[in-house]
């Protein structure tokens, strides 16, 4: 009898396989890491065979606990915006070029030779950027023509694994919307954009709903993974949209904030949110009929980690000899400082910035230091700077839709101080869940369950998650942040020319 859902989250650092029971309980999980090849400054690749081996190894580890015949469905979430080219036999022709790879800047610029940025944004929901799959495919065409001629399809990460599992080729709407070649107005590949890019449109796989059954486990895949031949495999989705499902952001009026190394705010809507300044992005949702707009900042948790490693020798030293988390001690230090950090503002642009500024040359800075400034002021200012930048994203969306509350997930959601700061700056209820790190795999599992007919609809997510903490805005704190946020924005704009000069050094 089928009693379990098997989800794979194919991330940047490794594959996390998770086993869920049909009543929403996390039974077991196993993560198998794989390397990333970073080179030439901003190039990044992974070997698709490493993905496959990680899927096989993690699946076998979980199947040691349950009978393969008890798996109702397999569903994948995966890193988005990559470019994995395969031949007609389904063999990867080269390492996959990852979302963070920036080699295709020349190719990105060429697309705008025949299309304005505004028109492009109106079609695909994104800016032109070397980050996306289309631009990466153009780079392969220009620089590796022999491989380009052998290419049958270009796939995202989870699509490649699905091919290995089932022998079938497709992508879902969420991953398709992260290629920069998908028309979000028609939910079809954009012939206009593809023609301007000068690539073969047949290389893009058929787009399907995330909740479709792609195929079943082949005999070969069964031998390599331990799964039962004939087990259904869902089309699945990109990691951002899967996380939306896993956090319960499945209907209009819901929103969530992921706080990891980077951070994003995402919503569920029926129509694209078209920002006049093109600061935010639109994606297709894994939930049929909906879109999943988002705004992403580069260094949220990364800024938090930077301050721990750079400014917190005291806390780190204490925790070397005691079973304590340095972040807990750092939070105590931050809590000793009033909102506003005694006039210190931190610009959290440690690796350039996407939303809201779209400036790769932006850099971090402390503003307002004086001889009375304490280390604790600077610590709190880092967290406030990150949160105010995210607050700008919330306010962009608020011009288009009502946001009564935001669910926060990721490592940063563990902090009560940070959750309260978010409620104060976002001007809405902020809640965290019982699972903070499982949203993506949980979303994939629910997608699989709906695809296999085990679940009626996405409302079943209520079986999996529950609200554990809620923070409401504090009016006095809000007065402080309403004065600070315009100053942060003004400080950034005042430094734009400085950033340009620094980039030339």
Account of the protein in words:
- This protein folds into three domains: 232 residues, Nucleotidyltransferase, domain 5 (2-Layer Sandwich); 118 residues, ATPase, nucleotide binding domain (Nucleotidyltransferase, domain 5); 109 residues, Nucleotidyltransferase, domain 5, CATH 3.30.420.40.
- It is α+β, with helices and mostly antiparallel strands and 505 residues long.
- The model has no long low-confidence stretch (mean pLDDT 96).
- The protein contains 18 helices and 24 strands.
- Strand 22, helix 15 and strand 23 form a beta-alpha-beta unit.
- It is 39% helix and 19% strand.
- The strands form eight sheets. It has a six-stranded mixed β-sheet with strand order 19-18-17-22-23-24, with helices on one face. Strands 3-2-1-6-16 form a five-stranded mixed β-sheet, sandwiched between helices.
Topology of this protein?
Layout: E1 4-10, E2 14-21, E3 26-33, E4 37-39, E5 43-46, H1 48-63, E6 71-78, E7 84-86, E8 96-97, H2 105-111, H3 117-124, H4 133-143, H5 145-150, E9 153-155, H6 157-166, E10 171-172, H7 173-176, E11 182-183, E12 188-189, H8 191-197, E13 207-208, E14 213-216, H9 219-225, E15 232-234, E16 237-238, H10 239-246, E17 255-259, E18 263-267, E19 294-297, H11 301-311, H12 313-321, H13 326-335, E20 345-347, E21 365-367, H14 375-398, E22 405-409, H15 416-426, E23 429-433, H16 439-451, H17 461-464, E24 467-471, H18 475-503
Parallel strand pairs: 1-6, 6-16, 10-13, 17-22, 22-23
Antiparallel strand pairs: 1-2, 2-3, 4-5, 5-8, 7-9, 11-12, 14-15, 17-18, 18-19, 20-21, 23-24
Helix pairs in contact: 1-6, 2-4, 10-16, 11-12, 11-14, 12-13, 13-14, 14-15, 14-18
